[in-house]
Here is the input.
Amino acid sequence: MSVNIAIIGSGVVGSAFIKQLKNIKFPINLNVVYLAKNSQEALYSSDYQPVDLATYETAPTKATLSLPELAKFLKSGAYPPILVDNTSSPQLAAYYPEFIKQGVSIATPNKKAFSSDLKTWEEIFSNSSAPGGGLVYHEATVGAALPIIGPLNDLVLTGDKIKKIEGILSGSLSYIFNSLSTSEPSTTKFSDVVNVAKELGFLEPDPRDDLNGMDFARKVTILARIAGFQVESPSSFPVDSLVPKELEACATGAEFLEKLPQYDADFQKRKDEALAEGKVLRYVGQVDMDNKTLSVGIAKYSFDHPFSSLKGSDNVISITTERYTNPLIIQGAGAGADITAHGVLADALKIAQRI
Ligand code: NHO
Here is the structure.
């Protein structure tokens, strides 16, 4: 048995994905027929010869195929096709409904298609369930490779009712709050912790892209939609940005970091107030299915709550359902290239077994 695979993107996650794929043994032949290193350069041959993953970094490339050309190429191969999107491209994401309609299955950590407008989400899943439609697996769009989307889907499909989802779903914001707000009094400064997070590689080049909460809001949108809440978009509910209003206009991330210490006193006050109540601050996403509300922002938790003892950049999610009246709690590393890549590869292998 064989499948044809197209890999799009060879950045942080993409290159870790290729390394893992190169080294696995699997009963199905995983034939990589197309590899787009970036939006300009690709490796492929018109007779579907496998791309040599050992030499892809230096091998001569061709111009990438347009998305309609790529769909046609994959559809015309001898084996069922899987597209692995390791980019954050909105253009590629917008083309998922068409790929799926044409029988191309998708495995991806790219959140864009699942967290933009509701219409794209609906098209993806209705095309996937139509006869001949491709399969869609996107476990690594939330919590890296932590098993969140699979179990949540299983609960919904088997008739459980989701009541509440609450989680810390950003590696960078988890690290910042775990370091900043502890059960012991501390004078650790917000700006210092943000700088350390940056040095450790947890933050985007411009830290505001993590601190504005929008990436987190996309993850909450995905979870709410799986639970049956038809969220219009990640900007249709309150998101508490950690970027002070006055610093939104800074021209660069470096200027933002330089001015951030002016706001340390605000964070110190907030965490001191929480400590006085026997609580710590955490940056969380909440979905309340009974009241149909969503939010992303700072919340307070007592010292014995599972969110309070989180370590490093770990993620945690708590899912309360009709069956799980004591919430189902899933916790572990929620960031990092190898971890994310294995979530994507595991999804691609599941697809290969099903198509
Ligand atoms: P990169 O390193 O920018 O790589 C993207 C590559 O795609 C680039 O090489 C670019 O040239 C190529 N590309 C873009 N458009 C293309 C096109 N049209 N055709 C062909 N190639 C194209 O990005 P990453 O970091 O590898 O991320 C890839 C995807 O994984 C993104 O959708 C990202 O959101 C997702 N993702 C990444 C990570 C991570 O570890 N970097 C995580 C989760 C999801 O859990 C991880 C994490 O750390 C989460 C987060 N930082 C947190 O929670 O704090």
Residues 337-354 form the longest helix (18 residues). Residues 8-14, 36, 38-39, 64, 86-89, 92, 109-111, 140, 144, 170-172, 202, 334-337, 340 surround NHO (CB under 6 Å). The mean pLDDT is 95. DSSP finds 14 helices and twelve strands in the chain.
